[in-house]
Structures are given as C-alpha cells and as structure tokens.
Design a protein that fits this description.
Elements: E1 3-9, E2 13-18, H1 23-29, E3 48-53, H2 61-66, H3 69-73, E4 76-78, E5 88-91, E6 118-124, H4 136-146, E7 154-155, H5 157-169, E8 173-179, E9 182-187, E10 194-200, E11 204-211, E12 217-224, H6 234-243, H7 246-264, E13 271-278, H8 280-287, E14 307-310, E15 323-326, H9 342-351, E16 359-363, E17 366-370, E18 380-384, E19 390-394
Helix pairs in contact: 6-7
C-alpha cells in the first residue's frame, strides 16, 4: 500500500494516510471537524475545501451540481467526493468546519434513595494455612454468602485474576463489588466504587461521575458527539452505516466516551457500573448493532428493552468486569403507545414524587414546567396525578 501525507491549512494538521482514502475520512482521523449534513454523499456541499497542491481525481457529478465554475477554477472541491492520490495540501475555510456545540451538564439535583446495581462490601478473610486447602475464590465466596448473607454465584474472569495478589498484598482484606450475584471487581480498601451516568445524544454526550458509596456527583462534563463527522442527524448516520460501516460510527462514540472518562476520572478502573440512555438509533450505533431495519418499514429495532453488556466488550475503559446498563428505547408499536424514549420514562420512574400535581413538557431529557391545563395544541407532555404517577396528556405552554 502506498502512503500519502495530507496537510490541512490553516489548521496546521498533517496526517499520513493510505492512497485512495476519501479526504473526508482523512480529515476525521486528523481531528478536522468538517461539516457533513448529508453523511458524505455530496448532496449538501458543506464540506468545501480548496486544493492548494497535489494530485486529485476529476470532478464527480455531485461536485459539478454544487460547485460553480468560479469555485472549480479556484481549486474548490468537496472533501467527501475526492480520494487522496498523492501528498496534498488543502485549505479548510471556516464555514466548512462544524461549530462547537454549547454543552450544558449542570442542573437541579434531586435526592433519591441510593440503590446502585453494584453493591460494595469490605471482606476480611482468614489467612490461608498449610492445613487449609480452600482456594481463594472458595474462601471469598464462603465469607460473602455465610457471613455477609449475600448471594454469590460467579465471578468475572478479570476479577479472579486480580484476587490472589490483592488478598496477599492487603492482609486478606479487600473490597468486593457484586452485581446480581457476580463479583465484577475486587480492589484495595481505599478504592471506593464509582458509577458513570451517560446521556448519549445525537449532537452531544454528557457524563456524570458518581460516588456509589454516597451518591455524590464527583464530576460532570460533556463533549460533542464525534459521530457528527459522519452525519449531523440520525437519519444521515443510519444511511452512512448502511453504505459504509456502522463500526466507524461505533468507534467514534467509544473513543469520545473514553476521552470523557479519562477527563472525569483519573482512576477509570474504579468505575464498576455505567448507565447509558439514548434514543433507539444511538443505542444501536453505540453497540454496533445493525441499523438497516431502522430505516425501512416497519422500522423495527434489533433490541428495544433494557440491556446489560460488559463495558470491555465494546471497548470502554473502566473496571474490567463493569457492565453498561442501557435503558429502553422507544416502545414497540409507536402509534399505539404514548410513551417517549426510555430516558423520559426513566426520568419519571426515578423522580416522579417531584412532579406531583404539575405538568411538564419534556425535551431532550430536560423538564420545562407548563400549566396544568390540557389542550389540543399538538405538543405532547406529561402530567401527574396526586400519587405522582405520570399520565400522558396534552400540555398548553403559555406564549407558545
């Protein structure tokens, strides 16, 4: 394979690529955030660049339709339509770069009973002796089941690999993280467990690092969803995944999340649980599931209920045995079910006492208070009865 170098001016980025690679992909690998409303089909004309030096292929039909003769004469091309044939230098105008999104992660916190899926226990074992033939795992399981009265059925392989050395280095006393009868991690006593809550949006990703011992939010931050480089909306990304590969979109979001995790937590190996919420398409792309069926009638997902997957299986940097819990997406048969995406259902199920006697319009998993009057305005919302249980109804928003 022949290698070429691409230089992006005036950004000062220079990157090595394989000959024949689309310039838009090279830009994405270099961190140059070119606009891609159409997902690289040459339909939007937003990824204009000026070729300053180097060999490029002839104009495509899409370029002839969207570039004027003056632009072509000036060296203007569409990055999604040309492949790198040699070392080239291109100028990227400001209007071709995506504008950084305003990220908001702050909000009003609501006190809830702390009931994490992963329970942490301090376990002190009797040191092994020459006359005691119990294995380290049997010794641990016996203590957890008989002394702590906690069910224990299995252990993650990576946790088992850590157990022998941890026991002997810490005087046979360790922290054990258990999830549904499975030991997902073992750690020294001074390493409390962390959880991560992630809102996977189409344009933005927000993450919150939680101390699972007391429920405190330790850090919060957000980034623009890196998948924007492959399309600025869900439909375009589904089309991109069908024509190219959904793996590219999955890798983009996983890399972005790992960067966010590293920024939030200096010790990501202490994260023993992740809860993630997103719409149906975002969940599919996050897991690397096929999305073709989402784009054609009857628009059925591969999976629609809640799901637990090992974080390491999708490439996330956490405790090796940690799980990612994905909340449900849209419910089956959209037309007959009034419920919006899973994040909204979960929002009310977790915090419904706070909404008693009020009406809310929910947008992007955020709440805006409305009045209690019903009205056929075409805006769907939720209100609650005296018990705090949400019921679907129309909401009239003053000034709308």
């Amino acid at each position: 394979m022949i290698s070429c170098y691409v230089t992006f001016k005036p950004l000062g980025q220079k990157i090595k690529c394989t000959q024949g690679t689309p310039l838009s992909e090279v830009a994405r690998d270099a961190g140059v955030r070119l606009r891609s409303v159409c997902g690289g089909k040459g339909l939007c004309g937003k990824c204009r660049v000026k070729v300053m030096a180097g060999e490029v292929p002839p104009l495509t039909g899409a370029e002839r339709e969207r570039l004027s003769m003056e632009e072509v004469a000036d060296g203007c091309r569409l990055a999604c339509q040309i492949r790198v044939l040699s070392d080239i230098t291109v100028h990227v105008p400001p209007e071709s770069i995506t504008i950084p999104q305003k990220l908001q992660v702050a909000g009003t916190e609501v006190e809830v009973v702390l009931e994490p899926a992963v329970k942490d226990y301090l376990v002190a074992l009797k040191p092994a002796t020459a006359g005691d033939s119990q294995s380290d795992w049997e010794r641990l399981a016996h203590e957890v089941q008989n002394t702590l009265r906690q069910p224990l059925t299995t252990a993650d392989l990576m946790a088992l690999r850590k157990l022998p050395s941890l026991l002997r280095e810490n005087n046979w006393t360790v922290r054990v993280s258990i999830r549904n009868g499975e030991v997902v991690d073992v750690r020294p006593l001074n390493k409390s467990p962390f959880g991560l809550a992630v809102d996977l949006g189409t344009t933005k990703i927000a993450a919150y690092l939680i101390d699972l011992e007391n429920g405190n939010t330790l850090a919060a931050d957000g980034i623009e969803n890196p998948q924007i480089a492959c399309g600025e909306d869900v439909i375009t990304r589904i089309s991109y995944a069908m024509e190219h590969s959904g793996i590219t979109l999955q890798q983009a979001v996983i890399e972005g999340l790992n960067q966010l995790i590293a920024k939030l937590c200096p010790e990501p190996e202490r994260i023993v649980e992740i809860t993630l919420v997103g719409n149906t398409a975002m969940n599919h792309l996050f897991l690397g599931l096929p999305v073709k069926q989402l784009g054609v009638a009857p628009y059925l997902p591969a999976v629609q209920g809640s799901l637990d997957v090992k974080a390491r299986d999708i490439g996330l940097n956490t405790a090796p045995g940690a799980y990612v819990h994905l909340l449900p997406g849209y419910r089956h048969q959209y037309r007959s079910c009034p419920c919006p995406p899973g994040e909204v259902d979960e929002h009310f199920l977790r915090f419904r006492p706070c909404f008693r006697g009020r009406a809310y319009l929910l947008r992007d998993a955020r709440c805006e208070r409305g009045n209690r009057e019903g009205g056929n305005t075409g805006i769907s919302g939720y209100s609650s009865d005296s018990s705090g249980c949400p019921s679907h109804r129309s909401v009239r928003i003053r000034g709308a």
